[in-house]
Design brief:
The structure is a single chain. By secondary structure, the chain is α/β, with parallel strands linked by helices. It has a domain at 10-155 and 392-551: FAD/NAD(P)-binding domain (3-Layer(bba) Sandwich), CATH 3.50.50.60. Helices cover 32% and strands 16% of the residues. The longest helix is centred in the C-terminal third of the chain and has 21 residues, at 448-468. The chain starts with 15 loop residues before the first strand and ends with a helix. Bound molecules: 3-acetylpyridine adenine dinucleotide (N01). 3-acetylpyridine adenine dinucleotide is lined by residues 64-66, 153, 159, 192-198, 217-218, 337, 358, 387-390, 443, 501, 503, 508.
Length: 552
């Protein structure tokens, strides 16, 4: 007889109603929502020794959020909102971890979180209608629902450089930074990678190290963060304006707390454009692109903005050779995730910072004393820093070794790229929900916004199942096919899908299929679609009651 219960109270040893993997932004809210709103028996597990998810690991020099602090927070509880005060415009990794600790303590989540607990595999037991989850060490947990909150950028992409094993110095990936920090004093450091992470870390490393060599494969745009402490009046305004801040975030494409102006780049003269962009530069942050609606829609419009940014680099960087390498950018502005920085281009004016253009002279191999380039040039190094990003979106999910009905594995199902319905479910994997999974807006947004939306949708869905007396929900291949077409349509309507070396497409990981993974149709639009699906009785999903499950 299959176990089909979904109710409280629970005797010890009974299966959980829900097992959540991850104790970051997603896992903490999912735990609170299912436990405290629905009264379910829930456990969250995380391999880390503390809560915080991605931020538990990301402690590299300069690690700081590029969403503004007042938007990088939960908005579901006024009490939580008012009880916390950010200190800076952009919080650093330490402050974000303190915020996550504050949330875990305020909501009394810790009794239902198991840390230092690594999931090795997840198998769906069809007869019992339960997920069986094997932990490192062999312990087995069972749960009706399995919910992943494993982050989109949590599986490190470490370049497979020949000779790395023989490197006599130390090497680190920015996403798994030693908690004790790294002492760069007196050291010759090489940093590979110039994405959002590398652009944050390079100036900080340059200020500490004897010498820094930045290895650049793809030149990148960056605009200044203009980070600063928050003034008391600003803090008070944030505390008292949750509703106003949230309503802007809910209405925008990317979940940020600013609105994009309804003006085309073609509507302004060169002089007007320069004036608008100079002001935006001084204001700082991701809002730089908010002055125009067609930055990501129209190549020639984008080129005008890109031209301004390339000129800025040439003006900031005094060495013309370095400036040329940094300003020779081959993709539209914001076609890859636009970084924001604190003194990135300025760092190349320091005497102790060099730049290597890997397009002109690639790394041939790592040698014990440093790095050898194809030209034969050797660069002596004591420390190598890989700011080389992540196996984004699919990597953390595939790593969980998930097997659904009929022995199908997620790894095999996604061999040609991820297929999901709404980024929330995969056919053949009943009762598995993927918070901010591929096919949802996720990484194109200020992350807490899509996380809250997914958590609330999943909570509503499970409440609906309970009302219906159903214990199983699974999407269909047809719903996934239709959604896959919509994900592609939305990406192709922008310049995002035209950047061949973007991690949105999986292009940064050798051998990964080239499929545009996040949903580019806009967060507000996506929220509406998800609400409609729920209102239509969870269209695109099949719900089953205990009898039907038992008869299968
Ligand atoms: O990673 P990336 P990231 N040899 O993939 C290069 C978020 N984030 O960690 O462009 C040489 O963007 C690679 O080159 P290319 C944010 O969403 C948020 O910087 O692939 N180089 C690129 O230059 C961001 O987008 C915050 O040609 C190699 C770099 O390494 C995402 O995380 C802060 C290479 C990787 O850039 C990822 O950013 C930081 C190789 N074999 C990050 N492999 C917040 O503030 C890769 N590269 C919230």
């Amino acid at each position: 007889m299959p176990d089909t219960s979904l109710s409280s109270p629970h005797a010890a040893g009974e299966p959980l109603d829900a097992l959540i993997i991850g104790a970051g932004f997603s896992g903490l809210y999912m735990l609170h929502s299912l436990r405290d709103r629905l009264g379910l028996k829930v456990l969250a597990v995380d391999r880390a020794a503390g809560v915080g998810g991605t931020w538990y690991w990301n402690r590299y020099p300069g690690a700081r959020c590029d969403s503004e602090s007042h938007s990088y927070a939960y908005t579901f509880s006024e009490e939580l909102w008012k009880g916390w005060s950010w200190t800076q415009r952009y919080p650093d990794h330490g402050e974000i971890r303190r915020y996550m600790d504050y949330v875990a303590d305020t909501l009394d989540l810790r009794p239902d979180i198991r840390l230092e607990t690594t999931v090795e595999r997840c198998d769906f037991d069809d007869a019992a209608n339960l997920w069986r989850v094997t932990l490192k060490g062999g312990e087995l947990l069972s749960a009706r629902f399995l919910i992943t909150g494993v982050g989109c950028l949590s599986t490190a992409n470490i370049p497979n450089l020949p000779g790395l094993a023989d490197f006599a110095g130390a090497w680190y990936h920015t996403g798994a930074w030693p908690h004790a920090g790294v002492d760069f004093a007196g050291k010759r450091v090489g940093q590979v990678g110039t994405g959002s992470t590398g652009i944050q870390s390079a100036p900080v490393i340059a200020a500490e190290a004897k010498h820094l060599t930045v290895f650049q494969r793809t030149a990148n745009y960056s605009t200044p963060a203009q980070n600063a402490p928050l003034a008391p009046e600003r803090k008070a305004w944030i505390r008292d304006n949750l509703d106003a801040i949230r309503s802007v975030m809910l209405a925008t494409t990317n979940g940020h707390p600013f609105t994009v102006t309804d003006r085309s780049l073609h509507d302004v003269t060169d002089a007007e454009l320069t004036e608008i962009l100079e002001r935006a530069w001084d204001f700082g942050g991701l809002q730089f692109r908010a002055g125009f609606r067609d930055v990501l829609l129209d190549e020639s419009a984008n080129a005008r903005m890109a031209g301004f940014l390339k000129d800025k680099i040439r003006r900031i960087v005094r060495d013309p050779a370095k400036a040329e390498i940094l300003a020779t950018i081959d993709h539209p502005y914001a076609g890859k995730r636009p970084p924001i920085d604190s003194g990135y281009f300025e760092a190349f004016n320091r005497d102790n910072v060099d730049l290597v253009d890997l397009r002109a002279d690639p790394i041939e191999r790592v040698v014990p004393s440093g790095v050898r380039l194809k030209s034969g040039r050797e660069i002596p190094l004591d420390i190598l820093v890989f700011a080389t990003g992540y196996d984004a979106l699919t990597g953390p999910l595939i790593k969980l070794n998930i097997t659904g009905t009929g022995g199908r594995t997620l790894a095999k199902e996604w061999e040609a790229g991820p297929r999901t319905y709404l980024g929330l479910q995969v056919a053949g994997f009943p009762n598995l929900f993927t918070i901010t999974g591929p096919g949802s807006p996720s990484v194109l947004c200020n992350m807490p916004v899509p996380i809250e939306q997914h958590v609330e949708w999943i909570t509503g869905c499970i409440a609906h199942l309970r009302e219906q007396g159903a214990t199983r929900i699974e999407t269909t291949p047809a719903a996934m096919e239709a959604w896959g077409r919509e994900v592609k349509r939305a990406a192709d309507a922008t310049l995002l899908s035209r950047v061949p070396h973007s991690w949105y497409l999986g292009a940064n990981v050798p051998g990964k299929p080239r499929v545009f993974m996040p949903y580019a149709g806009g967060m507000a639009h996506y929220r509406k679609l998800c609400a409609e699906v729920a209102a239509k009785g969870y269209e695109g999903f099949v719900l089953a009651r205990p009898a039907a499950v038992a008869a299968e």
